[in-house]
Specification:
Blueprint lengths: L5 H6 L8 H10 L12 H11 L19 H11 L44 H6 L2 H7 L96 E6 L2 E6 L12 E2 L33
Antiparallel strand pairs: 1-2, 2-3
Helix pairs in contact: 3-4
Length: about 300
Amino acid sequence: MNERDPTQASTLQRPTTDDTEAWKVYWKAQGQPWRTEPEIDNERQKILAERHRITPDIERGIYPFKDMRLSRADVEWLLATHAVLGTVDWKDVLLREHEGIDVRGANLAHTDLSYLPLALLRGGLNYREWEHATEEQRNGAAVRLEGADLKDASLKGASLRGAHLEGAYLRWVQFEGADLMCASLEGAYLRFALMEKAHLRDACLERADLRGALFAGAYLDGIMICDVNCVGPLLAACRREQSGSQTSRSIRTGALHGIGRGDEIEGGGRPKRGRWWSHDLEGCHHPRIRPGIRYGSA
């Protein structure tokens, strides 16, 4: 939870201008070092507060911030005033039963959300809601995060089923225990992302950069890793081999743990930039992989 120096907090004056550096110092003194933007004005606060009170209705596609463009300053204010659990200590198992801020259907595309404490964020339907929802209802609940900067953000336990994360910058993002089923991660930059025990069934990782990402215990059944041209994510420790007229890639030791040394990634497609890169898949649940083919789906 937030900690602050009461002496410093009481003596530091609240900035009266939009001086970003002054606000950063002020927020740090308030025990909110993740805040970097000047606080939104009273009119904007009123609008967000009114929208926050909207009761979600999955059947009718109604959510507090559906189709609303949110800025980083908006999200910071929501975290500080309406979602104390956004800064929850993930080690406290009991608090994981709660929910973070509800941004289902919101537009956060190309927004800088780096370093924010977004644990338990609601950016899609949960597994119970998903089972009974139509395709239209599932799509309507998906948050838009295309091209967003989520570097080093905490999205532990976040509900992001069907979320749009195409081209998002996700270096060092913390997705521990997050639900990313059917999420669109095409072209996402996931270097060194922490994906332990994340649920990625039927997620699309075409052209994603997975170098150094950690997938220990993740559920990968049904993931789509390659496009129609057999160009997939950047993976490591793989080599190209010639077998007659067909090109194959054999996994070297330490590449995709659990697939097995010497197993082939079939399909004969071209590797991006002439090589594949690897991430740590030790302990995850996943099938043998073929470019362009989705697994685990009926």
